[in-house]
Design goal:
By secondary structure, the protein is α/β, with parallel strands linked by helices. It has helices at about 50-60, 70-75, 80-85, 95-100, 115-130, 145, 150-155, 180-185, 210-215, 235-240, 360-370, 390-395, 410-425, 440-450, and strands at about 1-5, 100-105, 135-140, 165-170, 200-205, 225-230, 250-255, 260-265, 270-275, 280-285, 290-295, 300-305, 310-315, 325, 330-335, 335-340, 350-355, 355, 375-380, 380, 400-405, 430-435, 465.
Length: about 475
């Protein structure tokens, strides 16, 4: 068995904008802060010798020998800044970025002190100069309300034809009630849906989707859909989902005007929900594998009628004792099993949030989910008592991975974890997520001793090693970075 540690994550660094002047400059930008993205190209005062071009071709690497359309696809996977820099690699690459499928992310653009006008001017300049089609466009959702005309002009540009990914991301201000924001929302420009025939991933936020706008929409190739802080009717939501015959990942976050979400889909594999709705009913989802609660209403009821492949569930909070999850005739209220007539044998990964580390509660959940392999937990104190011999005699603990978040190494947490160390025969890993002040070898050596790792029931490795949108829904282990 392996005990892992999780420390602070590294921050991503933004690349600086390149200096620019060259043979084909971008259109003039009407702000002093806007930065031309074309890299510097060294100018030669003399004509090249007759054999210079041939020598350059012979020295090309194997990647540069690929066809233009293949290199264009590679460039389209890079950020806007990284893609623009490919022009300085060689003369072979100089024309490719402007013709490659456009990958334009508003967050990745350089900004001066006058940040918003500068970035908006850059978006206009890049789209106007682009000679190819579109691949991905990512913009702040607030532009749908405060800069609707500019967004409409961008979306109608031929530079975005055949767009595959469209994201209007939502960032709610601190101390701002999303429900109040939703009530004041306006419909987005109609051009937002002109890519419905080519989109594969879409995030729509901060707008009012009226019935007339969406009732006839069809997304034949859409695989991932996120609706965040939107106002929409239950009928329109059903029409959108039914108009996506290949939909695999669905994220519903703060959806207004809907009291009950009903899911009927033969293709959905992952559902994430953060909603004030009162009910979620999985009526028929034969392919559903992950049901993730990003945040639950205090009185929300989740009814799973048919999801025969469901393997991942959570994060279930204990504090909302009026919330319920129902599998057939089995009722889980908060984290307590109120009625267990049947077991749910498909669930292998579970995430829970306990006010206290209650072994009774965990054992009750393991009775309900007998094939559980990975358990992710939050908690502060321990309520373990030495009274579980009958359970150990009659049940095999199949857990392979345990993750304890905000671990401080106190005895309450150690006693809880040691129960599984000493009794779980197939346990492979215990992951302790700690604060930076505890992230050192001495702390983990002490945890190794206190957990009695030498007396572990499993026979795997025993060494101690150091180690927060809709795309995350299809991760193999969605709770590995938090729950």
């Amino acid at each position: 068995m392996e005990m892992e540690s999780a420390g602070p994550s590294a921050k991503r660094e933004q690349l600086a904008a390149p200096a620019i002047h060259g043979n084909a400059p971008l259109p003039v930008v009407p702000t002093a802060e806007a930065i031309d993205l074309e890299p510097a190209v060294a100018e030669r005062s003399e004509e090249p010798s007759p054999g210079a071009e041939q020598d350059e071709e012979e020295s090309l690497d194997h990647i540069s020998r690929l066809p233009d359309h293949v290199l264009g696809e590679v460039i389209s996977l890079l950020t806007i800044m990284e893609g623009s820099r490919t022009q300085i690699l060689a003369s072979r690459w100089r024309h490719l970025w402007r013709a490659a499928p456009l990958n334009l992310d508003f967050c990745g653009l350089p900004a001066s002190n006058n940040m918003l006008p500068s970035r908006c001017a850059l978006v206009s300049a890049i789209i106007a100069a682009h000679q190819g089609s579109g691949r991905r466009l990512c913009l702040p959702a607030r532009h749908l309300q405060c800069r609707a005309d500019a967004v409409d002009a961008w979306l109608r540009s031929h530079a975005l034809d055949n767009l595959q990914e469209l994201e209007f991301y939502f960032c709610c201000a601190k101390h701002c009630d999303p429900e109040l924001v939703i009530e004041a929302l306006l419909p987005p420009p109609a051009s937002i849906f002109r890519f419905s025939s080519t989109l594969r991933a879409a995030t729509i936020s901060n707008c009012y989707l009226v019935d007339d706008m969406v009732e006839t929409l069809r997304f034949p190739h859409l695989r991932k859909l996120a609706l965040m802080c939107v106002k929409i009717s239950e009928v329109s939501l059903h029409n959108i989902i039914s108009g996506c015959p290949g939909l695999e990942c669905l994220l519903l976050s703060t959806i207004s005007s809907i009291r009950c979400h009903r899911i009927n889909s033969t293709t959905l594999r992952s559902i994430g929900i953060r909603s004030s709705s009162e009910q979620l009913i999985i009526e028929d989802a034969p392919m559903l594998e992950r049901l993730l609660y990003l945040e639950m209403n205090m009185q929300m009821q989740i009814l799973v009628i048919s999801a025969p492949k469901l393997e991942t569930l959570g994060c279930i909070p204990e504090k909302y004792t009026d919330s319920k999850i129902v599998f057939g005739s089995t009722v889980i209220q908060g984290l307590r099993i109120d009625n267990q007539a049947t077991v749910v044998g498909t669930v292998k990964i579970l995430a829970i949030y306990m006010l206290y580390f209650s072994l009774d509660m965990v054992i009750g959940l393991m009775r309900c989910f007998p094939c559980l392999e990975k358990l992710y937990m939050k908690g502060e104190k321990n309520l373990w008592r030495r009274k579980h011999l009958n359970f150990l005699r009659s049940h095999e603990i199949r857990l392979k991975t345990i993750v304890m978040r905000y671990c401080r190494g106190i005895w309450a947490q150690v006693n809880f974890a040691s129960f599984f160390v000493l009794n779980a025969r197939v346990l492979e890993s215990i992951r302790l997520e700690v604060a930076p002040c505890n992230y050192d070898e001495g702390f983990f050596e002490e945890q190794h001793r206190m957990l009695q790792m030498e007396k572990r029931a499993s026979r795997g490795k025993k060494n101690v090693e150091g180690i927060h949108d809709v795309s995350d829904l299809d991760l193999a282990h969605p709770f590995a970075c938090g729950c």
